[in-house]
Design goal:
The protein has 8 helices and no strands.
């Protein structure tokens, strides 16, 4: 770049390129992973019914997830949604997040080298933890370090 002040778009493009070079990940790889992962989700006994009952048209959802992961992994800024708001009402707990992570890692391992899988998994674990904390909080449960959200806790207290 020249000494001239770069535009926001130029700065973002440079950042995305830098992230591609650092991680070895590009948008085509993200799309491969998203499509593979959600094919597993849709067929899964635990998570499939939750997703399939809420998503009627899968293609727009897959495109949003590609934008989401591009924003997470490449800092592309292409996702503009509110993931917590979309997940807070789901009937899920630690068991679901653990299974989500397992399916995500299986999908990634089938497609990519260990270093790329690990980069995706660091991000995926952070996302799962954040969503689990948010969902627990929405039910009035404040998790301490290392604690996990169990919906059975709510059933025993009569809150749900």
């Amino acid at each position: 770049m020249s000494d001239a002040i770069a535009t926001d778009a130029e700065r973002r493009a440079a950042l995305v390129q830098q992230m591609r070079e650092q991680t070895g990940i590009d948008e085509a790889m993200i799309e491969q992973l998203v499509r593979s992962f959600y094919a597993r989700i849709r067929a899964d006994d635990l998570l499939g019914p939750i997703f399939n009952s809420r998503i009627r048209d899968w293609e727009p959802h897959l495109q949003r997830m590609c934008a989401f992961w591009s924003s997470v992994v490449l800092s592309s800024g292409s996702y503009h949604g509110q993931p917590m708001r979309m997940h807070v009402s789901l009937p899920v707990d630690a068991r679901h997040f653990d299974h989500w992570l397992d399916l995500f890692e299986q999908s990634a391992r089938e497609l990519f080298s260990d270093s790329i899988v690990e980069h995706f998994m660091v991000c995926a674990r952070r996302i799962a933890t954040s969503l689990e904390l948010g969902i627990a909080s929405s039910h009035g449960v404040l998790l301490g370090r290392g604690e996990r959200f169990q919906r059975r806790q709510l059933d025993r207290t009569g809150d749900e």
